[in-house]
């Protein structure tokens, strides 16, 4: 059985990249609907909208020879204390063209990580952000505004994965931890910071949300059980609290691996909904990506030791989907700053020569009405509606 399955890995891998009609799963048509109704922010909670410093530096600054050069961009990366986020911070900081705000829940860990990866002091700032608490998200936004820096790019990268949890865990606000952190925390953060990005005069402003192949059921990886499925979202609408509602979006029994995959579907749906609601009005590029299988990161810290031992060689030698942390960081850095990746509403992936291409999302992850519904329920849950 294992061998049979193994022999089919590479076939499906090839196919999944070029042609997404795997296992007869019908491809979703690429729907391009422009929503005309745009909601104004209705921010509740302790921190009211604060005045943003008016001293935002102009995007073009005159150099001594009179030529105009682009100022350093400011990028916020959530979860930059390890894995993909840290590698991206390093890759961007190295260019000298970016100041990276490392938005992390563990301040000391992030400082140490930045130092040991050799990120120069002047190219980064660590700021505290715990995505599993809406208060922390709002404080982070307030602190960032007080710093007076412009915001040019936001990267929603942080995530937790709890595949071995028998019972759900919850955020400070009482939502199941994976969806609460990976989706709801980022949704609130991105909604609040959109205002700041609008004010930036940087020529290419971007909001990037990290997705994954495992949330896409039009791929082999996305068909490994348990599969992502948001269902009719009765659990999400009920508040994912595990008391009077299920802790799972679809209302089913708790499954940590499924909750993670569902959260990634929400991430990919949100990117598209942002695109439909705000791209035309703001010019901001909204994008998601699958950076490759970075099998060595902290994401798998909760998995059983045998899995952590076998997963990297499995991905390296069998699926060939493995990428190093360094390589994945370069990929995400491209989505942040490469002039050729400015298209909005795209889910980027990379082929085996590390060339980027526009990938196709699964039917569910590109469902316009689901995206709208996740958006509307989420804005109630985070206190924006
Ligand atoms: C669950 O297990 C876990 O319980 C949960 O905690 C969470 O992790 C979740 O999705 C995440 O997974 C899933 C389980 C399902 O997978 C496993 O337990 C396998 C773990 C494998 C990980 C490492 C494998 C190591 C393999 C050994 C390799 C050694 C490498 C060394 C090589 C180095 C050489 C030096 O697993 C299953 O259910 C098994 C079946 C999976 C099949 C998945 C494919 C589904 C495709 C569906 C469509 C099928 C259509 C077939 C069409 C065929 C056409 C020809
Ligand atoms: P890591 O665990 O290395 O990084 C995740 C980061 O998120 C860590 O810095 C972690 O902080 C941070 N984080 C977790 N919870 C919170 C929180 N409540 N508030 C703030 N930060 C938090 O994993 P990866 O680098 O692999 O994951 C990065 C992204 O890449 C995720 O979105 C993941 O879904 C995605 N991805 C990963 C793949 C892979 O193969 N690894 C494949 C596809 C997508 P701390 O250091 O304090 O724990
Ligand atoms: Mg998967 C082409 C095959 C491929 C790719 C690219 C991935 C990526 N995986 C593939 C195939 C398979 N995986 C197969 C055939 C199996 C069954 C043996 C398998 C199993 C598996 C497990 C148990 N894979 C996993 C797990 C995890 O716990 C990881 C996970 O689902 O995290 C949510 C995972 C992953 N496989 C990937 C990637 C990228 C992951 C993890 C990270 C993520 O999606 O964010």
Can you walk through the features of this model?
The protein is an alpha/beta fold and 385 residues long. The chain contains 10 helices and 10 strands. It is globular and about 65 Å long. Mean pLDDT is 87; it is low at 1-56. The site of NADPH dihydro-nicotinamide-adenine-dinucleotide phosphate has 30 residues, from helix 2.
Instruction: Return the average pLDDT rounded to an integer.
Output: 87
Order of the strands making up the biggest sheet = 5-4-3-6-7-8-9-10
Ranges where pLDDT stays below 50 over 5 or more residues in a row are: 1-56
Query: Separation of termini?
Result: 50 Å
Main sheet?
A: 8 strands, mixed
Computed CA radius of gyration, to the nearest angstrom? 20 Å
What general outline do the C-alpha atoms trace?
Answer: globular
Number of DSSP helices? 10
Number of strands: 10
Q: Could you give the order of the helices and strands?
A: HEEEHEHEHEHEHHEHHEEH
Tell me the structural class: alpha/beta
The fraction of residues in strands falls at 5-15%
Small molecules bound: 1,2-distearoyl-monogalactosyl-diglyceride, NADPH dihydro-nicotinamide-adenine-dinucleotide phosphate, Protochlorophyllide
Question: Which percent bin holds the helix content?
Answer: 25-40%
List the helices and strands and how they pair.
Layout: H1 2-18, E1 60-62, E2 68-70, E3 73-78, H2 83-94, E4 98-104, H3 107-116, E5 124-128, H4 134-146, E6 153-156, H5 177-199, E7 206-210, H6 234-237, H7 256-282, E8 285-289, H8 305-319, H9 325-337, E9 346-350, E10 356-359, H10 368-381
Parallel strand pairs: 3-4, 3-6, 4-5, 6-7, 7-8, 8-9
Antiparallel strand pairs: 1-2, 9-10
The chain binds 1,2-distearoyl-monogalactosyl-diglyceride (LMG), NADPH dihydro-nicotinamide-adenine-dinucleotide phosphate and Protochlorophyllide.
């Amino acid at each position: 059985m294992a061998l049979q399955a193994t022999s089919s890995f590479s076939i499906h891998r090839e196919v999944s990249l070029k042609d997404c009609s795997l296992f007869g799963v019908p491809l979703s048509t690429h729907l391009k609907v422009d929503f005309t109704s745009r909601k104004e922010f209705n921010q509740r909670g302790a921190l009211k909208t604060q005045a943003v410093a008016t001293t935002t530096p102009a995007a073009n600054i005159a150099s001594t020879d009179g030529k105009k050069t682009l100022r350093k961009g400011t990028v916020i990366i959530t979860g930059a204390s390890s894995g993909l986020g840290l590698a991206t911070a390093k890759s961007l900081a190295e260019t000298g063209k970016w100041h990276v705000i490392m938005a992390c829940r563990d301040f000391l860990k992030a400082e140490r990580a930045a130092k040991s990866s050799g990120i120069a002091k002047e190219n980064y700032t660590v700021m505290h952000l715990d995505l599993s608490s809406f208060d922390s998200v709002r404080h982070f936004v307030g602190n960032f505004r007080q710093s007076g820096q412009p915001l040019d790019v936001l990267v929603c990268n942080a995530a937790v994965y709890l595949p071995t949890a028998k019972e759900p865990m919850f955020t400070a606000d009482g939502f199941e931890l994976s969806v609460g952190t990976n989706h709801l925390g980022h949704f609130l953060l991105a909604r609040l910071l959109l205002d700041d990005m609008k004010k930036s005069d940087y020529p290419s402003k971007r909001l990037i949300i990290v997705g994954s192949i495992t949330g896409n059921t039009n791929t082999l990886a996305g068909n490994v059980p348990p599969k992502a499925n948001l269902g009719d979202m009765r659990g999400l609408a009920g508040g994912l609290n595990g008391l009077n509602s299920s802790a799972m979006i679809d209302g089913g029994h708790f499954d940590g691996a499924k909750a993670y995959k569902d959260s990634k579907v929400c991430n990919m749906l949100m990117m598209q909904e942002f695109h439909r609601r705000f791209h035309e009005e703001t010019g901001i590029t909204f994008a998601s990506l699958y950076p490759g299988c970075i099998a060595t990161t902290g994401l798998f810290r909760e998995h059983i030791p045998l899995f952590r031992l076998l997963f990297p060689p499995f991905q390296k030698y069998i699926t060939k989907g493995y990428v190093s942390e360094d390589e994945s960081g370069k990929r995400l850095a491209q989505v942040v700053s490469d002039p050729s990746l400015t298209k909005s509403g795209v889910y980027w992936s990379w082929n085996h020569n590390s060339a980027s291409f526009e990938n196709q999302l699964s039917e569910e992850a590109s469902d316009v009405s689901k995206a709208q519904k996740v958006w509307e329920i989420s804005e109630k849950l985070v206190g924006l509606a």
